[in-house]
Amino acid sequence: MRDVLLVAIGGSLGALTRWGVGLAAAHLFGRGFPWGTLLVNVSGSFVMGIAMRMLLDLESQPPEALPPAIQTQLALWHKGVALGFLGALTTFSTFSGDTLRELQAGQPSLALANIAANVLLSLAAVWCGFVMLRGLE
User: Of 98, 74, 96, whose CA–CA distance to 6 is shortest?
Assistant: First the structure.
């Protein structure tokens, strides 16, 4: 139940942050370019890098070597920040983290396949949804 609450609270805060950044960016820079999306994608990916490094460092320790406070912090960063907050702020951060993990694992072809599949299939899906509804008018 604690994990569910961490993801839910983090997700709520991430969604509100995304909305706020979008409004602020439109106000500051205008609507000619999706600055808000760019800001949340880049900043979310940066924070994902921090979370990944922290999680890898903590998870490399044997569980019995981690005091309960550190185990709680690990759950907070994994469930609350990485999955909840960053997942709602931008799935691009998760996509970036997944791609980096493939590169670090020595799998550049999988990393490139992930990039191509996500970008091309997502663009195709948004186009299909747009065309489908236009056809129903």
Answer: 74
Handedness of CA 122, 124, 127, 133 (dihedral sign): negative
The two three-digit tokens of residue 42, written as one number? 């880049």
pLDDT digits (tens, 9 = 90+) for 54-69: 888 777 878 777 788 8
- Cα 100 to Cα 28: distance, rounded to the nearest angstrom: 32
What's the token pair of residue 54?
A: 């922290």
What is the rounded CA–CA span in Å between residue 114 and residue 121?
10
| Type of residue numbered 71 | Q
Structure tokens at 50: 């921090």
Task: Write the CA distances from 133 to 45, 127, 137, integer angstroms.
Answer: 32, 10, 7
| Alpha helices for the chain (secondary structure H) | 2-29, 35-59, 68-75, 86-89, 91-104, 108-135
DSSP 60: T
* pTM for the model: 0.73
Q: Residue 4 has which token pair? A: 């569910």
